[in-house]
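Please decode residue identities from the backbone states below.
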């Protein structure tokens, strides 16, 4: 029978007592490292997902910017056509020269061209603006105003039409929603965008479909908030700054 010295047994017991916490600590460390590695892998997965989402958003924004630029270019072309109409009228007047020449054909032609432009443009107070042109024609025809006065009023009407293409503001006018006429607040951004808000809290924008314009009530909460923010800014006379708005660009111009 082998006898183990008591000192050796004591040292073995002490060593076992010391090693046990160290082994436990090592296991805990390995477990923590594995958990951290799992967290890191999860974060990398989320980063990859966010990258894909970001790329998709940037692609969508790029397409929207391209579409907006194309529509704005068409708008610029329409404005140039309006300016050309004015220049044509001015040239005809210069060629006619003498004040004794009959100006009625020139005035009537200019009024008809402007009426066509108004009717094909954004639906902003169209009836009122066209009625003003008809009044000039009627007054000229009935002799209530001179030819020179009619010419001046026609010229002023063209100036108003050009001013409206740049004007940003809030107005009121009658619109048709769901087949019913209602008075609504109008937020007009030049002649490229037009939004509305009704007394019964419906908000939306004007949408062009071919040669027709329709009032679309938005059901999207983000678009609704954007339109309301625009009306609030215009109410406070804030007409410059950065605004996020629904894509409601309009193409204007006579065909």
């Amino acid at each position: 029978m082998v006898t183990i010295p008591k000192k050796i047994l004591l040292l073995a017991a002490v060593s076992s007592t010391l090693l046990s916490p160290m082994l436990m600590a090592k296991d805990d460390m390995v477990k923590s490292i594995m958990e951290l590695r799992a967290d890191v892998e999860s974060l990398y997965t989320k980063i990859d997902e966010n990258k894909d989402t970001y790329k998709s958003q940037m692609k969508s924004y790029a397409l929207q910017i391209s579409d907006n630029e194309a529509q704005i270019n068409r708008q610029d072309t329409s404005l140039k056509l309006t300016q050309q109409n004015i220049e044509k009228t001015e040239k005809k007047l210069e060629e006619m020269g003498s004040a004794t020449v009959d100006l009625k054909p020139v005035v009537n032609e200019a009024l008809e061209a402007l009426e066509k432009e108004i009717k094909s443009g954004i639906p902003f107070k169209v009836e009122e603006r066209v009625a003003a042109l008809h009044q000039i024609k009627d007054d000229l025809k009935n002799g209530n105003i001179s030819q020179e006065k009619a010419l001046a009023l026609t010229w002023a009407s063209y100036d108003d039409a050009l001013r409206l293409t740049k004007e940003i503001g809030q107005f009121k006018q009658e619109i048709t929603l769901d087949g019913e006429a209602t008075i609504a607040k109008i937020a007009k951004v030049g002649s490229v965008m037009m939004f509305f808000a009704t007394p019964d809290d419906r908000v939306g924008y004007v949408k062009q479909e071919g040669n027709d314009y329709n009032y679309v009530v938005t059901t999207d909460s983000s678009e609704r908030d954007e339109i309301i923010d625009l009306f609030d800014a215009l109410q406070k006379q804030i007409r410059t700054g950065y605004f996020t708005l629904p894509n409601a660009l309009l193409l204007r111009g006579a065909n």
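Observation: The chain has five helices and five strands.
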